[in-house]
Amino acid sequence: MAHRWKNTLTHRDVTPKAAFMNRRQVMAGLAAGVGLAGVGGAAHAQDALVPNSYEDITQYNNYYEFGTGKDDPAANAHRLTTAPWTVKIDGLVDAPGDYAFGDIMNAMTIEERIYRFRCVEAWSMVIPWNGFELADLLQMVGVQSGAKYVAFETALRPDEMPGVRYPVLDWPYVEGLRLDEAMHPLTIMATGIYGKDIPNQNGAPMRLVVPWKYGFKSIKSIVRITLTDREPPTSWNKANAGEYGFYSNVNPEVSHPRWSQATERPVGGGLFAKRKPTLMFNGYEQEVASLYEGMDLKANF
Fold first, then answer.
1. Which of the two residues, 13 and 300, has the higher pLDDT score?
2. Which residues contact 49 (CB under 8 A, 6 or more apart)?
3. Per-residue pLDDT, 135
4. Are 237 and 221 in contact (CB under 8 A)?
5. Using alpha carbons only, how large is the chain's radius of gyration in Å?
6. Secondary structure string (H, E, C) spanning the chain
7. pLDDT confidence tier of residue 14, bands split at 50, 70 and 90
8. Averaged over 197-209, what is the pLDDT?
9. Whether 173 contacts 151, CB under 8 Å
């Protein structure tokens, strides 16, 4: 089993459920202060987070396979069939095969992880995930010595995903990590939020969560995991390599070509909420900086 990570955030730090489920609250509402505790000694300022209405919760999400409009995923994601669900694990592993989601869940230890979440669009939140360490799954199937990277693939179901009819990205959605990133105890496969199964529009039944990277790295609705000796392609990097690098670590010193990453807007704070400084590696610098020792993080963005 992988080394257990000690969580330092508590439920006091969690973005209110309604605000998490509806990112539209970034653009509306009044403010209520919620303190954010730091990880690795870093402290956040007071966050202004406001619960949203049920209508807000169900009408705003990003999942391009169900459409690019912010209310498209909530309107369309119910079409996704999540049971039965199978994940193909192949490549440089000792026990390749098609693994039923239920069998994976029975073999893993499910726990709660309260993590900061930072979108490349410069908004942020705190989310209580339920899931298991990816390292435990990889150890279960046996990682071979030649493996250096882990590639992931999202379901591609045109009959259930109306968004894939349009060439917004090169479908299916794919992502990847270095093996040491994948094996890090902070990296989890999330299967729940707020103690409930992840809604379809949020990546049911299983998604990746890498809290020190921008949110698009946390690929949703995974159907394939491949161990490989070569850096795998990733969807947003293929779409625009000048804006989205392979690593995509949260770095306030490296701006997106169209906006600064130095600050972020906490979701739920309203239109006039005070922005706060973005922390290096999203506040997990103490835990993960050693993974990139000696690397130029501006060149390897």
1. 300
2. 15, 16, 19, 31, 32, 34, 266, 267, 268, 269
3. 98
4. no
5. 18
6. CCCCCCCCCCHHHCCCHHHHHCHHHHHCCCCCEECCCCCCCCCCCCEECCCCCHHHHHHCCCCHHHCCCCCHHHHHHHHCCCCCCEEEEEECECCCEEEEHHHHHHHCCCEEEEEEEECCCCEEEEEEEEEEEHHHHHHHHCECCCCCEEEEEECCCCCCCHHHHCCCCCCCCEEEEEHHHHCCCCCEEEEEECCEECCHHHCCCCEEECCCECHHHCCCCEEEEEEECCCCCCHHHHHCCCCCCCCCECCCCCCECCECCCEEEECCCCCCCCCEECCHHHHCHHHHHHHHCCCCCCCCC
7. low
8. 93
9. no
62 versus 296: the higher-pLDDT residue is 296
Q: Contact 5/185 with Cβ under 8 angstroms? A: yes
Name the CATH code of domain 11-292 (choices 3.40.50.150, 3.90.420.10, 3.40.570.10, 3.40.50.720). 3.90.420.10
Strands 123-133 and 263-266: parallel
The whole-model pTM stands at 0.85
Q: What is the pLDDT of residue 196?
A: 85
pLDDT > 50? residue 45 = no
C-alpha distance across the termini of the chain, in Å:
31
User: How are beta strands 222-228 and 86-91 bridged, if at all?
Assistant: parallel
Are the C-beta atoms of 240 and 168 separated by less than 8 Å?
no
Nearest by Cα to 208 from 247, 174, 170: 174
**Per-residue pLDDT averaged across 58-72, rounded?**
77
Question: What is the model's pLDDT at position 269?
Answer: 60
Spatial distance between the Cα atoms of 24 and 187, rounded to a whole number of angstroms:
27
* Domain boundaries defined on the chain: 11-292
Residue 198 CA to residue 193 CA, distance in Å, equals 6
The Cβ of residue 135 has, within 10 Å, a number of other Cβ atoms equal to 21
- What was the pLDDT predicted at 38? 32
